[in-house]
Amino acid sequence: MCDIHYAKLPYNYINCYLLDDYMVVMVFEKIDSNDYIFEKFIEKINDNDCYVKYEENLEEILIYLRVPGHNKPNFDKFIKGNYSKFDDELKELLCRYYGRESIKSTHSATVFNTIYPQKFKRKQIADRLNVDIDLIYEVLDVIDIETEKYVSLFDLEKNQLKNNIINDN
User: Fold this and answer.
1) Phi, psi (rounded to 5 degrees) for 117
2) Are 24 and 71 contacting, i.e. CB atoms less than 8 angstroms apart?
């Protein structure tokens, strides 16, 4: 959405998470030594129109990006699980990147199956769920927004410790 290609991400890339107000944060493992490739990536991303800010904490590097205005409708569709409603330009971009393969033997879905939910795939899922095919519009569930939101490693560790204490009692 911000013209950043996954294959060109540095090796220390961890993941990309959702934030509020059409923002995402890219998370990178913090590297102690100077890394020429990562420095060049940072220089390039600073010139990106979507770039908002750069932050570091003890273990991670965070790069905040804004979803460009022309992609907000697709972003909204993604959040709502309306993957087959993406505009044709995004669908073509996804197909070029992920391919047009389709899994025919099981209910599992590829990106292609997701953005182009064919009748056979909808039927496989309906049969697995024991529901009428007319109830299956999309072949993937709506995302779990809580697992897609960014939580710092510090907060994750703090929550894990808290859960361990509660479970020990």
Assistant:
1) -70, 95
2) no
Q: How confident is residue 41, by pLDDT bands cut at 50, 70 and 90?
A: confident
DSSP conformation class of 17: E
**The CATH number of domain 6-69 is 3.30.200:** yes
23, β-bridge pairs: 19, 66
CA–CA dist 86, 75 (Å, integer): 9
* pTM reported for the whole predicted model: 0.76
* pLDDT of 2 above 70: no
**Cβ–Cβ under 8 Å, residues 140 and 108:** no
Which are the contacts of 166, defined by CB distance < 8 A and separation ≥ 6?
Answer: none
CATH 3.30.200 positions along the chain are 6-69
Task: Average the pLDDT over 93-116 and give the result.
Answer: 91
